[in-house]
Amino acid sequence: MCLLSIPLTLKSIFILNPFVNRFHEGGPFFMTLILICFLLSIFFIVRGFLILKKDHILSEKMLRLTVDSSLLGLVLGFLGSVIGLISAFDSFEAAGNPSPVLFAGGLKVSLLTATFGLFAFVVARIGILVLRALHKH
């Protein structure tokens, strides 16, 4: 009985999780690129904190890399949103007279990449602000 509950728990975590569903709705290509930028930002921030006392120059480099990776995630989010809007409008144009429900669904999906890009950017910016505050100039 215990073995049966483990796969169901993993299934509920990975398949039934609303965040995973939103990730797939937003389009796996752009959402994966934004996730990579987000993870890189977190890695650079953590590394910058860990080496802050040992190597100030390398910590500054990690700070710059965090800024760059977070901005790239933000821009990719908006690029994915614009491409999603263009494809949604193309499908609406092909349908002729789309229903408002279809229109709202297309807009929601196109904004998921921008939302995820903004989330990644805000989290990284908080880390950047804290790391900059800890740097002694």
Mean pLDDT: 84
Radius of gyration: 20 Å
Number of extended strands: 0
Strand content: under 5%
SSE arrangement, N to C: HHHHH
Number of helices: 5
Principal-axis shape = elongated
Low-confidence stretches: none
- Major sheet attributes: none
Give helix % range.
over 70%
Whole-number tally of structural domains: 1
Structural class: mainly alpha
Terminal Cα span: 60 Å
Describe the structure.
This protein is mainly α and 137 residues long. The protein contains 5 helices and no strands. It is elongated, with a radius of gyration of 20 Å. The chain starts with a helix and ends with a helix.
Task: Give the tags.
137 residues; single chain; 5 helices; mainly alpha
Give a quick summary of the entry.
By secondary structure, the protein is an all-alpha fold. It has one domain.
Topology:
Layout: H1 2-14, H2 18-25, H3 28-50, H4 56-95, H5 100-134
